[in-house]
Amino acid sequence: MTATNLFDAFSATVARHPDRDAFRCGDDSWTYSTWQRRADDFRMAYRRAGVVRGDRVLIWMSNSVQIAAAIVGAWAEDAIPALMDAACRAPQLENAVRTAAPRLVVRAASTALPPGAAVGALLVAEDVPPASLDSQTRSLSLPTDPASIVFTSGSTGQPKGVVQSHGNLIRACGAVASYLGVREDDVLLCPVPWSFDYGYGQLLSTAILGVTQVIPPAFTPFGICEALERHRPTVLAGLPALFTYLMGGMSPILGTDRSPVRLITNTGGQVPAPVLRSLRDAFPQATVVLNYGLTETYRSCYVPQGVPDRPGLIGRPIPGADVVIVREDGSLADEGEEGEIVHRGDYVCLGYWNDPEATARSVRPDPLLPAGTPFPGRAVYTGDYGYRDADGFVVYRGRRDHLLKSMGIRVSPGEIEHLLYESGLVELAAVFGRPHELLGHEVWAAVTFKAGVTDGRARLTRYARDVMTPAMLPRRYLYKDAMPRTTTGKIDYPALRAEADALAAG
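Below the sequence we write its predicted structure tokens.
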């Protein structure tokens, strides 16, 4: 791809496929030329609002053709779209406004301001009038200029605004499409908010590659199955929580025509092993490619088709990137030795908007470049811990701040979660620790049971004692009807820890 920036890349796609459907939702569809015209409307609205090059436009909406046009309109004006999902709460919205200091906040008419939220100048997307602009005008943004701000999920603390450049996103989109085998004639179903980095990547696939995207009526098993039946997508992209619900007992997936799907892909954490097996059984004709990455790196690793599943496996680096394991002193770890996972090479973010301290902690000089190199390079220190196995694959052990030391032994919450899923009793599991004066960390497990499970608490306790070492064994359980979620659909671990703290204190 030779486009200088995302607006030029989008314009080239429109020129190739003006009458192809860009989006489908229910009975409605929008072509690329329609998308471009609506983006021109937003472009003029931004000009009238005083938006200039480098200004941030906070786009606070759910997936729709309106948000897609609002994003492209910002690129066209050399502004920087900052993305927030409509489901976010007042604290997250206000944090985004403080961080990005946007010239303008764009929202849908149906999105009400959270009580007490202060956001500044507002633009209602549906009120943006038609405009007459020359769509051939080129954006001035360079490949190294900031292209967007996507906020982290907040699952490990206050959300931070990750800044990626135009060039990074164009190259990363092409690299991912290459190893996944995505084709221009694919139809993509991605029930993930575009404000989440993985969902945003799927929107980029539509904008840059020309892949038609299906917007489901709801991000639920019923909404997904309706979209599968109606639009017959060839690619299904999702998150572990989504696949867990899709393969759950109340889902209509097994009565849905799944035959057109040829590729299933994910990111956002490990798919529980029983869910992954059910997914492969339900879609026997589809290639399943599992991915690992952070908002800061777009994508880092993938597990090639045919590699046997095992807990924590995140695979090999994607084209254009390298992933290494480093010790605390910055030296390379040996094979099988645990250390921090570091992403080097392409797709490294520019940093966190308006947060130089956090940027300095995460984006550091490349540990593999020799001393004296004029430009020390840049690498993302992920905060994830793992090791490289004998086959050269990276195996994930857990977040640096989530790994537990129980009874003097380091244990991985992910491994405990894997064993809980293997019980066949739980729909969802989340393991974390609390400081304990004797144990070091006391292991807690929050679980939701599968529909129809009886006597689940006693059965799960007996099972855990049979399969886990004493250091891994959960000492306390939180039995949940539903797990708390972040706005991106991930399990909200801070909320669970707060609940555990309250119980322990009471």
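The chain is about 30% helix and 25% strand.
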